[in-house]
Structures are given as C-alpha cells and as structure tokens.
Amino acid sequence: MLKRFMKGVARLRPPKPRYNCVWEPRQIFNYFETHPAESLKALSMKLITLLTLATGQRLQTLSLIKISNILTSEDLIQIVVPDRIKTSRVSGRQPCLILPRFNDLPHLCVFSCLQRYLQETEKLREGQENLFLTYQRPYRTASKQTLSRWVKCTLQLAGVDTSIFKPHSSRHASTSAAKRAGVSIDVIKDSAGWSRSSNVFAEFYNRPLIDRSEFAHSIFNM
C-alpha cells in the first residue's frame, strides 16, 4: 500500500531540476585573478570553491577530506575519501579526487592553493585531521554548513546571483562546463561521483549558461 502511495506521489509531483541554466565558472576565475587570497579567511574560501569546481564533488565529500589521505607527487595531488558519503554503496567506489598542477595558471591552481593552505594551517591544527579548519580562534574542524557559507560568500563576491544559485550550484557549473568543453560523460560521472549507469547528470545537472540576451542577438545577427 505504501509503495503504491509513493508511486502515486511521484507521478503527481515528479522530481524536477533545481536550475534551468547555470553560471559560468569564468566569473569565479576572474574574481580570483583580481583578488589575491591574502588572509586565512580568503584562502579558505578560495580553496573550497576551487575544489568544488575542480572536482565536481559535493560539499559533504569535501568536508570529509583528511590530511592523512592527501597524496602529493610532483605534478599531481590525489585525495582519497574513505568515509561514508551520500552515494556510498557496499560494492561502490569511494571518491578519489585528482588535482593536477597548473603552472601556467598560478592564481587558479588548486594544487598550489591546497599546499599553501596546509602550510598556513599546520601550526593551528593541534592534531586535527580534517583538511578544513575555521579561520578564527578556536580553530576547529569546519562543518559542511560552514563550507557552504564560504562558497556562497565567494559566489556573491564574484557577482553570481545567490538568491537564485545556491552553493551546490557549483557542482552544476563545473560539470556542465566540462561537458561543453568536450569531456566525455563517463569522465564527468567518475569525477563527480556518479555511477556510469546514472542519469542524474543528464536530467538534473547538465545546464546551459545564463544568457538572457541570446534571443535578441539571434534576431539582430541574422
């Protein structure tokens, strides 16, 4: 009976995507290019925002990063997240985040940003394993909600309309940008933590850019 009831509810109110369009990550990049992270607060906000864009992962996953699970080589950082997350399954794979070094984009290099963050927080940790700490005394592990506020603040500073786009929209923005750039669907799914058989990206995340002038331009440029 309950199963039939839930099916009926699903038919009456089918799940819909939160967004019909999405912002351009270039907005965030332009902001970082002109606003160096000169304080721990700014560095913290920059790192979590770059991580959301570089990996396409949920903030829940990023909040669980432990410094002992960060493996660094010369040109690559690999981060394993063994903790249980939203998509954890008995036979499923846990997230493995890959962060390449971008020598030609120093202001956007999440590899360098992470290394700097680790250096600046080393003496503040007092044995705390989680990567992200609050930037004010007493320095404690930053919760997922705190990270969400940091991302929201960054979006606001960069000019993204946060009355429409929530912090989670960074996942939409990054995965949609990767698709537009020609990255294969399988690579996007692997990076963002969706299974190869999942339709979540196509149904809820792959969104066009905001361009309210597109219609008029299409008319006058004919």
UniProtKB/TrEMBL annotation:
GO MF, any single term: DNA binding
Pfam families per UniProt: Phage_integrase
Domain spans labelled Tyr recombinase: 13-218
GO biological process: DNA integration; DNA recombination
PROSITE patterns reported for this sequence: TYR_RECOMBINASE
Keywords tagged on the record: DNA recombination
Superkingdom: Eukaryota
Protein name: Tyr recombinase domain-containing protein
